[in-house]
TrEMBL record:
One of the record's GO molecular function terms: collagen binding
Membrane-topology annotation of the record: Single-pass type I membrane protein
Organism: Scophthalmus maximus (Turbot)
Domain Protein kinase, first and last residues per copy: 555-851
GO BP term, pick one: positive regulation of neuron projection development
Protein's recorded name: receptor protein-tyrosine kinase
Enzyme Commission number, as recorded: 2.7.10.1
Xref: InterPro entries: DDR1-2_DS-like, FA58C, Galactose-bd-like_sf, Kinase-like_dom_sf, Prot_kinase_dom, RTK, Ser-Thr/Tyr_kinase_cat_dom, Tyr_kinase_AS
Major place of residence: membrane
First-tier enzyme category under EC: transferase
UniProt subcellular location: Cell membrane
Protein family per UniProt: Belongs to the protein kinase superfamily. Tyr protein kinase family. Insulin receptor subfamily.
Length: 856
């Protein structure tokens, strides 16, 4: 098995080397440099959008893998008003024509506070800013599958690539969805300067009963008998094979790679093509890739006569070139036509038949040193100062052997590293967690090694201390595999146990784990559900905070309810809240004009980060409306201190609430009267399950929005009247429960006892990791929060146990069955939440149903 893998890999390397070495013309496989969204070469003013949700989600924040904390972490359009959302776009002006081979998209992660992304999108492009073309793949599909979570970068090859100056990303979504995007374009500058070609439409050949189509199937201009004002297959960087019936591209029709014509249709014996350029250039040569399968009546041209035009008229004296028509080799080849340094902005060439058929797959122009040694349209800034224009690696003619060699070497090293990891990783490997952690680290590092050669540019280009961009900005994305799903970044390794472990000592300055870039966010998340759905559209309308400002003087302080990360939480009376909201809240204990509310205040000395987090929590909460989610009613953010006003939950948090209760025995449960009497200190099993049902219901709602809570636990649920439970704390950790969090080297604060193995080891937070946390929360509920999960284990041992979950050799320790928990609920439900394979864990929908059934 391993030998087979090695052979395959070796074959892959050889193929890659060949591919790299053979190509020396327009080469989409080499032309894959990030064009500057991440690296900053594209200026803010060149990034625009149809609309924006708020100033902090303006177009300039739509840079992939870039979040300097200024904005809210992505471009987010205003509410999608069109049914398919196609009105909205993020536009990048590349300032000159570029050959774009690859695009990357990412959602709004914003250190864990964002969860909006475009699951699908389309691309429009333009060379002149006025004529726009909808990109479609070789099979005519326009919609590109985008992101499945807010953080992973998803790269998509543009097949065919586009030649454009302006590119628009257009999220495709239901109008009720909020999407946010960060993007990058990959490619190189299009130095040919060719803006369009005009050719007669290709013909159809019948070869032994087989239909062979030689049309220009990706032409992006006007289609008629003659194709005009566009570019297509002749500039897509794909060269035809010797046998025109076959194609480089999988599952395309015979003849796909070529545009071809039958001599019989041309009375004058030649095909006339007109090439238009961006400006007057000094042309040295033209290269035409021709098929020469003369055994089937196809041959390269026998003569090319090219006319030139700098102004309105064609000059009289053409350049004529007669290549030696190869009557021996049937290999397809590039034929170079010298153009004698003629100056022109338009070239008209007549290619004369030498056989029945003439098939071309590519045409390229070289316009002399005047073009390649001067910067055609230099970007305003951002190019490394030590990069000569002629050396700009984003230039299209990337035929430097050194680059090819370096590229190959990096690819080989990456592949070798992978092989080493495969060989090293054996199921019966080292037993101790330290060892397994090392292996995991190595594995992640190796995976990263493959990625870094492709993606390191994103980070390194930003990190130079003098603020200049480094050459690594231009590191290419190597086309090593078909699907470029970025396994993302390994920013920090696992916590180092050897180092002394501090416990969380006060919340000041201690970032919540969601903000800490801990380790690789590997693979795309399991997304069972669609993207964020705006539940209450008018909550979003236009404004940034999306919540109405409540007059502060209408709040009357009653008592302090507690203290959280941001400051104190007060019970207040809100005068006229119902009128303010225009709703009848019909809450017990509230009269018409006075409503009891909880007011969370940001402490006065809060730093900028805390302030941002506070505002972000407002934004998150303002989007949520469910009976089992604590509702944000209004805000006071016009002046300091910032306040959020939420519904008041009389019984505080669920952990404290349950901790003070005792479980009613089954026999006692029958006595309804007793239940009433002792209701304050005792609780029945069915009531506990009722609470779990409500949490599952709230989580079901969140998962329907693809919202990952990341910190589900009883401490983060609040209890109202009649055992009403609502989920709260969207991204906050609390002083009171600091023991539940594990602090990694002063950076990350992690509720490790509630976290899935993949969240701890891979930094991966998904619906399925929320399901894991739900299992622990259910365990807490059924033990009435009398002890912390894994209370007999230290934090280090909990992490060690996580390693066992990862290895899955039966050595992992599960939380025990709570005494009151029926066997079926434990095995079918609780344990299923902690399955190693995230995909095998139940959904909240399923658990909700299961819990309801267990109540019946
Ligand atoms: P937090 O800042 O959300 O961590 O809350 C701090 C404390 O305030 C907790 O101990 C809660 O018991 C209490 N608290 C927060 N929100 C509410 C609410 N809506 N109703 C009642 N008590 C609350």
């Amino acid at each position: 098995m391993k030998v087979m893998e090695l052979k395959l890999l070796t074959r892959g390397v050889v193929f890659f080397l060949l591919a790299a070495a053979v190509r020396a013309q327009v080469n989409p496989e080499m032309c894959r440099y990030p064009l500057g969204m991440t690296g900053g070469q594209i200026q803010d003013e060149d990034i625009s959008a149809s609309s924006r949700w708020s100033e902090s989600t303006a177009a300039r924040f739509g840079r992939l893998d870039f979040d300097n904390g200024d904005g809210d972490g992505a471009w987010c359009p205003d509410i999608m008003s069109e049914p398919d959302g196609l009105k909205e776009y993020l536009q990048v002006d590349l300032r000159s024509l570029h050959f774009v081979t690859l695009v990357g998209t990412q959602g709004r992660h914003a250190d864990g506070m964002g969860n909006e992304f475009a699951q699908r999108y389309m691309i429009k492009y333009s060379r002149d800013g006025s004529k726009w073309v909808d990109w479609s793949d070789r099979k005519g599909r326009q919609v590109i599958e985008g992101n499945r979570n807010a953080y992973d970068v998803v790269l998509k090859d543009l097949e065919p690539p586009i030649i454009a100056r302006f590119v628009r990303f257009m999220p495709v979504t239901d109008h009720s969805m909020i999407v946010c995007m960060r993007v990058e374009l990959y490619g190189c500058e299009w130095l040919d300067g060719l803006t369009s070609y005009s050719i007669p439409d290709g013909h159809q050949m019948i070869y032994r009963g087989l239909d062979v189509y030689f049309n220009d199937s990706v032409y992006d201009g006007a289609l008629a008998e003659r194709l005009t004002k566009g570019l297509g297959q002749l500039t897509d960087g794909t060269w035809g094979l010797d046998d025109f019936l076959h194609s480089h591209i999988y599952s395309m029709w015979p003849g796909y790679d070529y545009v071809g014509w039958n001599n019989k249709s041309f009375t004058k014996g030649y095909v006339e093509m007109i090439f238009e350029f961006d400006r007057v250039r000094n042309f040295t040569s033209m290269k035409v890739h021709c098929n020469n399968l003369f055994s089937r009546g196809v041959r390269m041209f026998r003569q090319a006569s090219c006319y030139f035009r700098s102004g309105p008229d064609w000059e009289a004296d053409p350049v004529t070139f007669r290549p030696t028509v190869d009557r021996v080799s049937q290999i397809a080849r590039f034929v170079t036509v010298p153009l004698g340094d003629r100056t022109a902005s338009g070239i008209k060439c007549r290619f004369h038949f030498s056989d029945l058929w003439m098939l071309f797959s590519e045409v390229a122009f070289q316009s002399g040193s005047a073009v390649y040694n001067t910067s055609l349209t230099p970007r305003k800034h951002g190019h490394p100062t030590n990069t000569l224009p002629g050396e700009d690696p984003t230039h299209k003619l990337d035929d430097s052997n050194t680059r090819i060699l370096i590229g190959c070497l990096v690819a080989i090293i990456a592949i070798l590293l992978t092989i080493i990891v495969i060989i090293l990783w054996r199921p019966g490997g080292p037993k101790s967690f330290d060892a397994s952690r090392r292996i995991l680290d190595d594995e992640l590092t190796a995976r990263l090694a493959i990625q870094t050669q492709a993606f390191s540019s994103h980070h390194s280009s930003l990190s130079t201390e003098d603020g200049s961009t480094s050459n690594s900005t231009y590191e290419r994305i190597f086309p090593l595999c078909a699907d470029y799903q970025e396994p993302s970044r390994l920013i920090r390794k696992l916590p180092e146990f050897a180092q002394s472990m501090e416990h969380l000592g006060g919340s000041d300055g201690a970032p919540h784990y969601a903000e800490a870039d801990i380790i690789s966010l590997q693979e795309s998340s399991d997304s069972r559900s669609p993207s964020i759905t705006a539940v209450n559209m008018n909550l979003f309308a236009g404004t940034d905070s999306s919540m109405k400002e409540f007059p502060r003087d209408k709040l009357t302080f009653k008592e302090k309810l507690g203290e959280g990360q941001f400051g104190e939480v007060h019970l207040c009376e809100a005068e006229g809240m119902q009128d303010f909201l225009g709703e009848d809240l019909s809450l017990e204990g509230n009269n018409e004009s006075l409503l009891l509310v909880a007011v969370k205040t940001l402490r006065e000395d809060a730093n900028k980060n805390a302030r941002n987090d506070f505002l972000k929590e407002i934004r998150i909460m303002s989007r949520l409306r469910d009976p089992n989610i604590v509702r944000l009613l209004a805000v006071c953010v016009d002046t300091d201190p910032l306040c959020m006003i939420t519904e008041y939950m009389e019984n505080g948090d669920l952990n404290q609430f349950l901790c003070d209760l005792r479980l009613k025995e089954a026999t006692e449960e029958d006595k309804a009267e007793q239940e009433e009497k002792e209701g304050e200190s005792m609780v029945s099993y069915s009531k506990l399950i009722g609470m779990a049902v409500q949490i599952a219901s709230g989580m079901k709602y969140l998962s329907s929005l693809n919202f990952v809570h990341r910190d589900l636990a009883t401490r983060n649920c609040l209890v109202g009247k009649n055992y009403t439970i609502k989920i709260a704390d969207f991204g906050m950790s609390r002083n009171l429960y600091r023991g539940d969090y594990y602090r990694i080297q002063g950076r990350a604060v992690l509720p490790i006892r509630w976290m899935s193995w993949e969240s701890i080891l891979l930094g991966k937070f998904t619906m399925a990791s929320d399901v894991w946390a739900f299992g622990v929360t259910l365990w807490e509920i059924l033990t009435l929060c009398k002890e912390q999960p894994y209370s007999q284990l230290s934090d280090e041992q909990v992490i060690e146990n996580t390693g066992e979950f990862f290895r899955d050799q039966g050595k992992q320790v599960y939380l025990p069955k709570p005494p009151c928990c029926p066997e079926r609920v434990y095995t079918d439900l609780m344990l299923s939440c902690w399955r190693r394979n995230a995909k095998q864990r139940p959904s909240f929908q399923e658990m909700h149903t299961q819990l309801m059934e267990s109540l019946a």
